[in-house]
Design brief:
about 575 residues, mainly alpha, two-stranded antiparallel sheet
Length: about 575
C-alpha cells in the first residue's frame, strides 16, 4: 500500500516516519531546519515542486542511494544501480535507443500485442466475456511481450497463438519460460545468495536458479549474435536494445569483455562496458520496462470500469481520432499525437497521478556537505549525509498545484481535470502532429536531464516538479516515452471496440442479473464498486512497483453498445 511520509529536519539526519495510507495517498506535513532559527511549519519539501525540481536537477548534491539498488545487479551493474561518473558512462551508452524513431516499433508491437491480449480473453463473436480475474497478469504479459519484441527482437506468443516448439539445444527452458519464470521468482533471485540458490534443495530455489541461468544463457547467445552482426557490418531495423548496448560499448573483434574506458578511444581498445554490465543493463530494461506500463494499463482499465462516464468520453475521442479504420491502418505519426492530447492521454496521466509506480523516490544529501534549498521564500538546510524521499503520492495530491473541485476530488480518478481548451463541455483540441511532436526530441540530452514535457500541449501542464511518475531531472526514466506510447496503444485497441465493466458475479449470477430490475442492478454494481475501492485502499503493496497484491477485481469485456451498467454514469 502507499506510504505517506512525515519528515522532520534535524542536524545530522532526516527522520522519516512511515504512515500507512490508501492508494489515493495522504498529504504529508513537514517542518524545516532554517538558518534563521525560525521553526514555523513549511510546506513538505518532499511534496513541494520547487524543492523536488531543485533536488532532481542537482544530481551531485542529492545523489541516488545506490546501495538500495544492489539487489538489482543479479547479472551486473547497470544505469539503474550506478552513480557519478560511472552512471554518466552507462547513461551515454544506454540512452541512444530511446528515440522517437524507435517508438514507431513500440507502437506497432503494442497494437499487435493488445489485439492478442483481447483475443486471449474474449471471442470476437460474443457480446461479453466471462469474469476476467487475471487482468493484472494479462497486462503484465502484454507489456513483457512488447519489450521482448521491440527491445530484443524476440516475439513471444500468447497461449492461443502457441505452436509446439523444441527447446533449443543446450537449454532446459524455452526463452519465454526462462524469462517468465525469472520474473515470477525475481525476489527470490534478488535476495538469495548465489551460492545458496545453486545448492538449495528447495523447489522454489531450484526454479529460480534454473530461470536465472537459462535467461542468462539466452542473453549471452543474443549478445554473441549482435557481436557477429557488428563484425560483418549487418544492421537491423528497430530498437534493438542489445545491439545498441554492444555497439555503444565499442565492441569489436579485438575486445575481450573487460571494460577500460581510458583506453577505449583508440581502435582495438577494450570495450566500454563489461559483458556483465551489458547483461545487467539488458536485465533492468526488461524488469523496469514492463512493470510500469503493465500496472498503468491494469489500473486504468479498473478505474475506467469504476467510472463509466469517463470511459464513454474516452471512447468518443477514440471514435473521433481513429474513425472506422482497423488498427492495422492506425498511423503513429498521425494518430499518436492526437491520442496523447485527448481523453486517452488524460486517462493515462490521471492514472499515473493517482497511482504512481513508485510511491517514494529515494535520494541522499552528500556526505560532509549540507545542502540548501529555497522553499517558500526561506532557506532550508538539509544536513549532510541524510536520506531524502521525494513523496510522489503527496506531491500528486497537493491542492496548490492541481485542478480540483474539492479536497476529496484529488483522491479520486477524474481524468477530465487534464482537459483544457474547452474540455469542460466535451469539445477539446486533440492536438496536431507537428505541434504535439515538436518538442519530443528537443530537451533530450543523453548527458543531462530529460527536459521533455510529460504531457501533451493540449492537456493541463502541471508546474515543474509537481508531476513525477517517471521521476525527474537527470535520473528520470529512460523509457518514459516507450511506456507512454505502449499505454496509449493498448487503451486505444481495447476501448475502441470494447467497454470494460466491473463484474458483479460475486453477489449475483448472470441469470439473476438478467431478471433484475434497474434498482437491483444498481445495487449490485455499487457493491462491486465498493469492493474495488476497498482493495485500492487496503490491497496495495510495493515490492518493485506498487501493485494490488491482496485481492483481485474481476472485470468483463463487453462489446460497445451491450453495456449493462450505463445507468451508473
Amino acid at each position: 500500500m502507499a506510504m505517506a511520509t512525515h519528515t522532520v529536519f534535524e542536524p545530522g539526519i532526516i527522520h522519516v516516519e512511515l504512515a500507512v495510507s490508501d492508494a489515493a495517498g495522504l498529504a504529508s506535513t513537514t517542518h524545516g531546519h532554517m538558518d534563521d532559527e525560525d521553526h514555523e511549519p513549511l510546506p513538505n519539501p518532499r511534496s513541494h515542486p520547487e524543492a523536488i525540481s531543485q533536488i532532481t536537477t542537482r544530481r551531485n548534491d542529492f545523489p541516488k542511494p545506490i546501495w538500495m539498488y544492489a539487489s538489482v545487479d543479479i547479472y551486473g551493474k547497470s544505469v539503474v544501480s550506478t552513480e557519478g561518473a560511472n552512471w554518466r558512462h552507462h547513461r551515454k551508452i544506454t540512452s541512444p535507443p530511446f528515440t522517437e524513431k524507435n517508438n514507431h516499433l513500440v507502437w506497432q508491437e503494442s497494437v499487435h500485442q493488445a489485439n492478442s491480449m483481447v483475443a486471449s480473453m474474449v471471442s470476437p463473436d460474443v457480446e461479453r466475456s466471462g469474469s476476467v480475474w487475471n487482468v493484472a497478469a494479462q497486462a503484465m504479459r502484454l507489456s513483457l511481450h512488447v519489450i521482448s519484441k521491440a527491445g530484443f527482437g524476440v516475439r513471444l506468443p500468447w497461449p492461443h497463438e502457441e505452436v509446439e516448439t523444441k527447446i533449443p539445444e543446450g537449454h532446459t527452458l524455452s526463452y519465454k519460460d526462462a524469462l517468465s519464470s525469472l520474473l515470477e521468482n525475481i525476489i527470490v533471485v534478488m535476495l538469495t545468495p548465489t551460492w545458496l540458490l545453486r545448492r538449495s534443495p528447495l523447489k522454489i530455489h531450484k526454479a529460480a536458479n534454473e530461470s536465472f541461468l537459462e535467461w542468462g544463457k539466452y542473453m549471452r547467445e543474443l549478445y554473441e549474435q549482435k557481436k557477429a552482426e557488428l563484425q560483418t557490418g549487418e544492421s537491423r531495423d528497430g530498437m534493438d536494445l542489445m545491439g545498441a548496448l554492444v555497439k555503444g560499448a565499442g565492441i569489436t573483434g579485438e575486445t575481450n569483455g573487460h571494460a577500460d574506458p581510458e583506453k577505449a578511444a583508440s581502435p582495438g581498445s577494450k570495450q566500454l562496458l563489461t559483458d556483465d554490465e551489458i547483461f545487467g543493463n539488458a536485465f533492468v530494461f526488461i524488469l523496469a520496462g514492463h512493470e510500469t506500463a503493465a500496472n498503468t494499463i491494469h489500473f486504468a482499465m479498473m478505474l475506467l470500469a469504476m467510472h463509466p462516464q469517463s470511459q464513454r468520453r474516452l471512447q468518443k475521442d477514440l471514435d473521433d481520432i481513429l474513425g472506422d479504420r482497423p488498427s492495422s491502418e492506425w498511423d503513429y505519426d498521425e494518430d499518436v499525437p492526437k491520442l496523447f492530447g485527448s481523453m486517452c492521454g488524460a486517462v493515462m496521466n490521471e492514472e499515473l497521478r493517482l497511482i504512481p509506480p513508485v510511491v517514494g523516490i529515494p535520494k541522499t544529501s552528500t556526505a560532509g556537505r549540507p545542502q540548501g534549498l529555497q522553499l517558500g521564500g526561506k532557506h532550508v538546510t538539509v544536513p549532510a549525509d541524510c536520506s531524502v524521499t521525494l513523496d510522489t503520492v503527496a506531491l500528486h495530491r497537493n491542492p496548490k498545484y492541481w485542478p480540483h473541485t474539492s479536497e476529496e476530488d484529488l483522491l479520486d480518478f477524474r481524468p477530465e481535470r487534464w482537459l483544457v481548451d474547452g474540455g469542460a463541455n466535451g469539445h477539446h483540441d486533440h492536438g496536431h502532429g507537428d505541434e504535439a511532436h515538436s518538442n519530443v526530441e528537443e530537451g533530450l540530452d543523453f548527458d543531462g536531464p530529460d527536459k521533455r514535457p510529460d504531457t501533451a500541449p493540449s492537456l493541463f501542464r502541471p508546474a515543474k516538479g509537481a508531476y513525477i511518475p517517471f521521476s525527474d531531472g537527470y535520473r528520470s526514466c529512460l523509457g518514459r516515452r516507450f511506456a507512454q506510447v505502449e499505454i496509449l496503444a493498448v487503451l486505444a485497441v481495447v476501448f475502441k471496440t470494447w467497454s470494460i465493466e466491473l463484474c458483479v458475479g460475486l453477489t449475483m449470477s448472470d441469470e439473476e442479473l438478467d431478471k433484475a430490475d434497474e434498482e437491483v442492478r444498481r445495487e449490485a454494481w455499487e457493491r462491486a464498486d465498493q469492493r474495488a475501492r476497498e482493495l485500492l485502499r487496503t490491497g496495495m503493496m510495493t515490492i518493485i512497483t506498487i501493485q494490488m497484491r491482496k485481492g483481485k477485481v474481476p472485470m468483463r469485456f463487453v462489446k460497445r453498445g451491450s453495456e449493462r451498467f450505463d445507468y451508473a454514469v
